[in-house]
Amino acid sequence: MKLLNIALSAGLLLGAVSCTKMEDEADYHGKISNPLGQRVHLKFFSTISDYEKDQNPVKTLTIEPNSALEVPQEFEAGTTYYLDWYSEDYRYTNWTRNGDNSFTVANIYPELDPVMTISSTRNPTRLLCLDGDQQSTTWIAYDAVNWSSSVWSSLMEHRKFHKFVFRRDFTGTYYSIETPGDTSEIHFTYFANFNSWATPQNTVINMEFPQLGLFPSLTNQSGIYPIYSETDTLRTNNSFIGSEGYTYYFKKI
Length: 253
Hints:
The protein is mainly beta. The chain has helices spanning 2-24, 48-53, 125-130; strands at 31-34, 40-45, 59-63, 67-70, 80-87, 102-104, 116-117, 136-146, 149-150, 162-167, 171-179, 182-193, 204-208, 217-220, 233-236, 247-252. The protein folds into 2 domains: 27-120; 130-252, Lipocalin.
């Protein structure tokens, strides 16, 4: 019986030492892996509002090409941040309104790395809507097409004025002139969709106009018109502007 008591006491002692050792170890939150051949910039925000306005980042980091970076040790396990990341050329990003941009800090063993891998799927929406890392972009109409023929020169000057502004907080404004001297403003919210191939011609900016109940779209056309670069032009679908059914083309200014 004495031998058994000694064995139990020794086991309890070893357990206590083992637990103490684990508690003394620094938290390890894992690494974020960057498989791209260019730098990736990351911004951690504590609220979704700060994320949408690009203000008060808790931490800003840069991951070198084809490497990994450790999640900051000062982050507390269980805390959720909103992560905005983008590549050096802005063609890879997680920026979107209807996506899950949350990042919850965890304590892991190194063999479970990485805790996150940067996506290698191209996403042109940041260039379209933010021109990279700006607060907004502005687009003005420069042509109107009826099927394959331009009708721009036949339009009255006030009918040529159409402008879109896309802002970082996923709000926007559409400006037009229906009658000379009378500029109208219509406000909207938006989100961008792109298919799994992330080809520009399949990128759609869906604009929601609550006061009108409309759901028009702008579609990037560079895949159809190779003379344009990836984010040089947008076009409306032919049911959005006016009753004529023309397709309007826009350029970024």
